[in-house]
Design brief:
single chain, mainly beta, Jelly Rolls, Immunoglobulin-like, 4 domains, seven-stranded antiparallel β-sheet, 44 strands
Length: about 525
């Protein structure tokens, strides 16, 4: 059979199509993961804050050495060097500060920040010379500050220290621990490390290993501390630091925005260009115009936000703490004991209403609807409001509405208020006024037995059903001036003398626990 080459098509096996689809999907996932990983971290910068003498910078992209100018930014891969009798200081966005002595060179190996958590990772390479560093205390395991020399690696957390490298030898000195965990030093490429934890401890690291930890005397230690803080050269005397402009801080966020229903609030402000701005546990760097933006994630409740700006010399400006509020709904409570206080014989009752709210303010709006009559909103100050409801006989419902400054509302209904009625008296024996002449008289010679009066006195309010309300409402009963025993159901019984042929007048008086009084009388004729 002949095949027409113009009409013949070569088919692709089904297995090849599936394999091709698998490869494309795999490459797509790998690309997505790589993009996600890149997006999670961002490159950040440190700034040159002090320049004395000849300082040069080489950017990571390559090129010639250029003069280092105050305000320039250094990023991952950049290198900075001091030549001759020169000094330079660097400020990092977390507030950490480093200073280089003369004839020193460091490379910013890595400087990144996590976009989600804000955690920073800093890695510096001291190629030669001497570096003084003041590292902010690191509270998170995700943040790190690492220093590397040609012979050693050191992890630092919240410590002032000095490291120098010369002739294949690295020298570390812990100047001031400052509440941090000190310095962990190891030989480059090895795992075993030694820890400097006390002020004045020092150690030398060579390719052969880590030397013994030695203690520096206090006088030498104070010189090193002063040198770093004030750019003092122990050999050449003090060099005046470069003075910065007077620090200031302005918050753009209006006060009204500090009350928010959002979990994220934006803090806007301005200060000197490229100084460190600490907002609670965040540290950011103002831009070249001195402006900064921070986002705070707030949960329900009040948050005191403290904003501090700090220059490279450690000068600080503290703004008065600001209260940001992401409010939740208010909570209404009544101070009275509802098991007793709702029962009153007065038409005006003194009711204390308490309001608790996440908003750190004492301004609210309140509305009270009583007896199905709608009230009106009115403003109150303070977290307690005294209300005098006008209670009529029977059940009254009071509805309380509270609105905070953000607009969240709370509601509480009270439907157990009573202005109680007097007890209701009923007779069980005899049932009302009845002639009992048909009752046979006693046998001759016998004393007539007493006549028993039985009845019930109950409260018309909730006390009528104590099993439901858990309220004990005692009733007192007197029959012809004699106190009668009353059980929990209000039933009473009393014996009266039986006199044949006479009329027996029975007068019952009942009191509830609020001293509401009821009276009922019957007449009984005793027959032969």
């Amino acid at each position: 059979m002949r095949i027409n080459p113009k009409t013949s098509k070569r088919s692709v096996p089904m297995m090849s199509k599936k394999f091709l689809f698998f490869l494309l999907s795999l490459f797509g996932l790998l690309w997505f993961w790589s993009i996600s990983a890149i997006a999670k971290e961002q490159q950040i910068a440190c700034s040159i804050r002090e320049v004395e003498g000849e300082v040069v910078v080489q950017k990571a992209v390559g090129g010639d050495w250029e003069p280092g100018v105050q305000g320039d930014l250094l990023r991952s891969g950049d290198t900075i060097q001091t030549r001759g009798a020169s000094r330079v200081g660097l400020l990092f966005t977390d507030g950490s500060i480093i200073r280089l002595r003369e004839n020193s060179m460091i490379k910013v190996k890595s400087l990144t920040q996590d976009n989600e958590t804000g955690e920073m990772k800093t890695s510096l390479n001291v190629l030669f010379g001497t570096m003084w560093a003041k590292v902010r205390r690191i509270f998170s395991e995700e943040s790190s500050f690492e220093v590397e020399t040609p012979t050693s690696v050191a992890a630092v957390k919240g410590t002032i220290f000095i490291v120098s490298h010369e002739n294949r030898s690295s020298h570390y000195i812990l100047v001031d621990r400052e509440g941090g965990s000190g310095i962990s030093v190891r030989v480059l490429g090895e795992e075993a490390a030694v820890n400097l934890q006390q002020n004045g401890e020092q150690v030398v690291v060579t390719p052969e290993g880590v030397g013994n930890i030695e203690q520096m005397n206090q006088q030498e230690l104070e010189k090193l501390l002063d040198w770093g803080e004030g750019m003092i050269n122990p050999d050449q005397g003090e060099i005046d630091p470069i003075q910065t402009d007077e620090l200031f801080l302005t918050l753009f966020s209006p006060v009204d925005s500090f009350l928010t229903d959002q979990s994220d609030v934006v803090v806007l402000g301005a200060t000197l260009p490229e100084v460190a701005v600490r907002i609670n546990d965040q540290t950011i760097l103002a831009d070249r115009d001195g402006e900064f933006t921070a986002i705070l994630n707030l949960t329900d409740g009040s948050h005191v936000v403290t904003v501090i700006v700090e220059d490279s010399l450690g000068n600080q400006f503290l703004e008065e703490p600001v209260i940001f509020v992401n409010t939740g709904a208010p909570v209404i409570s009544i101070a009275d004991d509802l098991t007793r206080a709702p029962f009153t014989s007065n038409t005006n009752y003194n009711m204390s209403i308490f309001i608790s709210d996440p908003t750190p303010s004492d301004q609210f709006k309140i509305k009270i609807d009583e007896n199905e009559e709608a009230g009106e909103w009115f403003e109150i100050r303070g977290n307690m409001y005294t209300y005098f409801p006008n209670l009529s006989e029977g059940s009254n419902q009071i509805e309380i509405f509270v609105r905070d400054q953000v607009g969240h509302e709370a509601y509480l209904a009270i439907d157990r208020w009573r202005d109680t009625l007097p007890p209701i008296i009923t007779f069980i024996n005899p049932p009302g006024s009845i002639d009992i002449a048909r009752v046979p008289p006693s046998p001759p010679g016998h004393e007539p037995p007493p006549f028993k009066i039985r009845g019930q006195a109950i409260d018309p309010g909730e006390c009528a059903n104590p099993s439901v309300t858990n309220i004990n409402c005692p009733i007192e009963v007197q029959v012809n001036g004699v106190d009668a025993a009353v059980d929990e159901n209000g039933t009473f019984e009393v014996e009266l003398p039986r006199v044949v042929g006479e009329v027996l007048a029975v007068r019952v008086i009942a009191y509830d626990f609020l001293e509401n009084r009821s009276e009922k009388a019957i007449t009984i004729r005793i027959g032969q």
